[in-house]
Amino acid sequence: MASSHDLKEVLKDTLESRGVLGEIKARIRAEVFTALNDQSERKPSMNSENVLIYELIREFLDFNKCKYTNSVLISEAGLPQVPLDREFLRNELNVVEDAPSKSVPLLYSLVANYKESKNGNRFSASKPSHVTEVLGNSHQYSATLQYGSENDEPVAVIVKGGKL
């Protein structure tokens, strides 16, 4: 007959291989944080940039199924349980989407924009740049950056979703 230590090891290995143990640990961390976080503690007021950043991160975490991380973010940042409307975020960030790209978090298009500008690729106002990114295994989207004639700042990011 197997010892209790052996049974514990087999159970632990089984839970790890199924991914359940990591999920349980994340859930416990989230619950401990929530319990320790003083709900009466007044959160500092946030400026509009922080609100946009938190909402982009929230959408990203939700898309990637990081629900416990997301719950800690909501609690720690003092965010409301209901996220801001995606259309509001799009308008605030000047992001233009087509129908398929609505399944991809807005953060992906912003990262594509940053990567393109970081590579030193500056484009004339009359000629928008086009970026295609592959995310992981076959996750793909395209982004077109449009620049205004008066400066180098992008006036819109047009995202066209691919297969997800």
TrEMBL record:
Alphabetic keyword roster: Cell projection, Cilium biogenesis/degradation, Cytoplasm, Cytoskeleton
The keyword Ion transport belongs to this UniProt entry's keyword annotation: no
GO terms (BP aspect): cilium assembly; microtubule anchoring
Residues in FGFR1 oncogene partner (FOP) N-terminal dimerisation domain copies: 47-112
Entry GO terms, CC: centriolar satellite; ciliary basal body; motile cilium
Places the protein is found: Cytoplasm, Cytoskeleton, Cilium basal body; Cytoplasm, Cytoskeleton, Microtubule organizing center, Centrosome, Centriolar satellite; Cytoplasmic granule
InterPro entries: FOP_dimerisation-dom_N
Superkingdom of the organism of origin: Eukaryota
Pfam short name (any one): FOP_dimer
Family: Belongs to the CEP43 family.
Function text: Involved in the biogenesis of cilia. Required for the recruitment of PLK1 to centrosomes and S phase progression.
Protein name: Centrosomal protein 20
Biological source species: Biomphalaria pfeifferi
Lineage, opening ranks: Eukaryota, Metazoa, Spiralia, Lophotrochozoa, Mollusca
